[in-house]
Specification:
The protein is an all-alpha fold. It contains 8 helices and 2 strands. It has a two-stranded antiparallel ribbon.
Amino acid sequence: MSAIKRNIPNLITLGNLVCGLLSIVMAFQAELLLAGGFVFLGSFLDFFDGLSARLLQVSSEIGKQLDSFADMVTFGVAPGIIIYTLILEDYNNYELLPYIAFLIPIFSAIRLSKFNIDTRQSSSFIGLPTPAAAIFIASLPVINQSYGTKFSLELLIGISVVLSFLLIAEIPLFSLKIKSGEDLKSKENKIRILFLISCVILLFIIHFAAIPFIVILYIFLSILNNLIQ
């Protein structure tokens, strides 16, 4: 196997890492739309590094560790800085409150560490995946810009605390990956199809403002899936 083929997934992962770094830079420059955009691009690359590894049938321990480090930057540190900047922009009289945004990278680190050693998460998730929390936060500047909204201090703090809790909560959440040999008519696949159709409808109607609702819907349908199994 050529070295180039073997390292294609790792190069995509490094692209994800670069997106995270650029997002942090943009957030510190108060360019929050660009900061959120780089998180979205990073999540796109994060999906394709795993997909390319499966298609090329290549995997390595280095690749797994590199993926976690990239995710920590793009889906942990960068969203934390976005929330921090959102709070600081409108509520700079509160000296310590903006730092509550750092709960996001702290609990993302715990989430990713648990994921790496938890054998229960090979085909599903326990706790909210870091990309889901990250795109929730990355959508906030877009909503702010598109609708001219100003998020309250209580809402921004609530988002930081609730998402941090969900990252490490012992809540089984379904994966969009279909298991090998799984019946396509299974209850879990029906939940997946319902979720994907709902995502398309929401995005068509309210565009980027749909993203927080999509994440909430994902959690709700996962809980519903757990109850009917």
